[in-house]
Amino acid sequence: MLIRRALFGLLLASPAAARSFAERGVAVRGTDVVAYFTEGRVVRGRAEHAAEWDGVRWLFASAANRDRFLADPAAHVPAYGGFCAWAVAQGYTAPTDPHAWRIVEGRLFLNYDASVQRRWERDIPGFIARADLNWPRLNQAG
């Protein structure tokens, strides 16, 4: 797990990892990604607590959440650039709904919608394994 986490962090830090799902340049539709981890729920970010990272604007509910994110972005960004985890497991990318989320082994995963998330939940470990294999190729396709 530590090796996968370290590899994930390296991928995020590299210029090749710049492919991400963002609408109008804003990540996760303006949702505070730190709040998924600290509050266990979807929390809307605010423009006054924004940060630019990896070519995308990230919004946070508080300055403390923004600072926590900037101290360790790899610990908070969604897997697969914020694209749908189930879709990446199938070999393509799709947008996501911030309300269709789950944290698994310290990683934030998003899905297209609640219906797709239910499908993904039938075999989370299997879909993560497939998506982890597919993501490097899909990440380069952007």
Fill in the keyword field for this structure:
YHS domain-containing (Seleno)protein, 6 strands, single chain, two-stranded antiparallel ribbon, about 40% helix, two-stranded antiparallel sheet, alpha+beta, 6 helices, about 140 residues
Give an overview of the whole structure.
The chain has 142 residues and is of the alpha+beta class. The chain contains 6 helices and 6 strands. It has helices at 2-13, 33-38, 63-71, 85-90, 114-120, 124-141; strands at residues 22-23, 26-27, 46-53, 56-60, 97-104, 107-111. The protein has a two-stranded antiparallel sheet with strand order 1-2. A two-stranded antiparallel sheet has the order 3-4. The longest helix has 18 residues, at 124-141. Residues 1-18 have low confidence and may be disordered.
Brief summary:
The chain has 142 residues and is of the alpha+beta class. It is 41% helix and 21% strand. The strands form three sheets. It has a two-stranded antiparallel sheet. A two-stranded antiparallel sheet has the order 3-4. Strands 5-6 form a two-stranded antiparallel sheet.
